[in-house]
Amino acid sequence: xxxxxxxxxxxxxxxxxxxxxxxxxxxxxxxxxxxxxxxxxxxxxxxxxxxxxxxxxxxxxxxxxxxxxxxxxxxxxxxxxxxxxxxxxxxxxxxxxxxxxxxxxxxxxxxxxxxxxxxxxxxxxxxxxxxxxxxxxxxxxxxxxxxxxxxxxxxxxxxxxxxxxxxxxxxxxxxxxxxxxxxxxxxxxxxxxxxxxxxxxxxxxxxxxxxxxxxxxxxxxxxxxxxxxxxxxxxxxxxxxxxxxxxxxxxxxxxxxxxxxxxxxxxxxxxxxxxxxxxxxxxxxxxxxxxxxxxxxxxxxx
Length: 302
Known about the structure:
single chain; alpha/beta; TIM Barrel; two-stranded antiparallel sheet
């Protein structure tokens, strides 16, 4: 049965291999073939562990700043675009207004996205609602929760100078009022705020944004760890998984990087390139087992 299967796949394998190895020297081709033979032998013996060994289960897609480049950033339209493109989640940034509401914006002020050099904390909600980001209104946290409900997981970053325990309390309250505790993850660069949430609201999901690797990062008490590409090694991802936590890699935008992390053990990638990521994910899902093995072999001899 296995021999027949290999025979059927051989023609496709040769074509695929030619694309991968075009222009390479004979030693590289020979090495790839040798590794391929070993991998085929293993796949025959340990077929039940194929997905585990060759990482054929791809990571989920999380749209950066609501919809990445597919729509105006941090807007309801961004969430809608990400959902239509198959994203599993959307990441947004919230900041507090001068009258105590929460609006969605990444930068310290609105200069880049709306031409106004004021910070959210210097404006009331009604003043913020007059702004436009490429024609789209600046949404409140409540509006983003409504837009994401039963569509995508909303990763809400507690952001900027107003990110404090009050913001944490208010965000949890708003999420609970919407009855969306299971559809929201509260994330931040600020370790102490996440610790506060874990201690006071253990029922909430949390995620730490790590731009540097430190000590035993896997021992942090949060549900998710978001790692920058440079520190997202196989060893670090494995250590985090061993502690029962999930790994997101950010911000993954280039084609080669998207393919690499989708076929790694990462649980998700945070990306601006939502459409491209979806296309790559679809292409990867269509690979035959032999194509997967050959691609793995090629990566080993690079």
